[in-house]
Amino acid sequence: MKKIMVFILISCGLIITLTACNSKENTSIKIAEVTRSLFYAPQYVALEEGFFEEVGLDVELQTTWGGDKTMTALLSEGADMALVGAETSIYVYAQNSKDYAINFAQLTQTDGTFLVAKEPKPNFTWEDLKDTTFLGQRKGGMPQMVGEFVLKQHGINPQTDLDLQQNIEFANIPGAFVSGEAEYVQLFEPTASTFEKEGKGHIVASFGEESGHVPYTVYMTKQSFIDKNKADVEKFTRAIYKAQQWVETHTPEEIAQVIQPYFEDTELEMLTASIERYKSQASFATDPVLDKKEWNNLKKIMNEAGELPEDVPYEELVNTEIAEDVIRN
Kindly report the CA angle at 292 between 147 and 236, in degrees rounded to 5? Predict the structure, then answer.
């Protein structure tokens, strides 16, 4: 009888132990993304394929629609991490913030916009932009700064050689182009390809191909968050790296099928075409390391746009230790 009781107690102990192990909750991480864009395909792959859960994280994603709103969410602790342009970390640093944002994982490495003309331009040259109305992006944001940088590379002064319009909110730019007088516009995918399919515009050039590598969209968090939660930041980076490698080794069709739940209003065919366009110009970073050459290219673009508040050292705002450890291990 005693042996039976001992066996039951041991069994119960094992059950309690196993239950306790299985009930261990994942760590919750709140992410603020600057916009919803298939440019961020690796992030949606990580979510849909369960890569975050594999490392013990529950990721809550919110779209904050704009760099200023995204950084406000991060700095006010409305989000633990932000997916936004690296330039925003420089703006925050220049305001003498005591707990500034640190870039720890890069997601995209080129500009993600395309030059779309209202009329067909089979023999397009950048000279065609002179004396036209160009609907650009928000002043001080990466799309607009890269846009101006590329125009200058082709001998076009954005302020004097064309009518540059920058007074339209990001979400309203596509509609303003269709209903307005602008002859050219700077658009992300899948809007650019959708416009082309519907006859509302024609893709004539890629700003990503023209501008070279730049830390266009990165994950950042406050230094205090890294100090307190470095293991979770490492886990997050590990999941993103796995997603980057997944995107690199899978076809546009396979990627589109996985991320379609985040773009329910876009046809699978259009998603596939847009992803293929981004893959062909190497827009998706294949690892999370933000290197110094890319950082210097960012500062050069900001400086030429007159938006670089100060020359912030790479070592001050970029943490590559976490990403490098993830890749090594």
Answer: 90
The count of C-alpha atoms lying within 13 angstroms of the C-alpha of 275, restricted to the half-sphere facing its C-beta, is 27
The model scores a pTM over 0.85: yes
Do the beta carbons of residue 32 and residue 79 sit within 8 Å? yes
27-110+214-328 and 113-211 in the same fold: yes
The tally of CA atoms less than 13 A away on the side-chain side of residue 231 is 6
pLDDT value of position 3: 45
CATH 3.40.190.10, domain 113-211, yes or no: yes
Would you say domain 27-110+214-328 falls under CATH 2.60.120.10?
Answer: no
Please count the other Cβ atoms lying within 10 Å of the Cβ belonging to residue 29. Answer: 22
Residue 115 contacts residue 202 (beta carbons within 8 Å): no
Cis peptide before 215 (omega within 30 of 0): no
Domain ranges of the chain: 27-110+214-328, 113-211
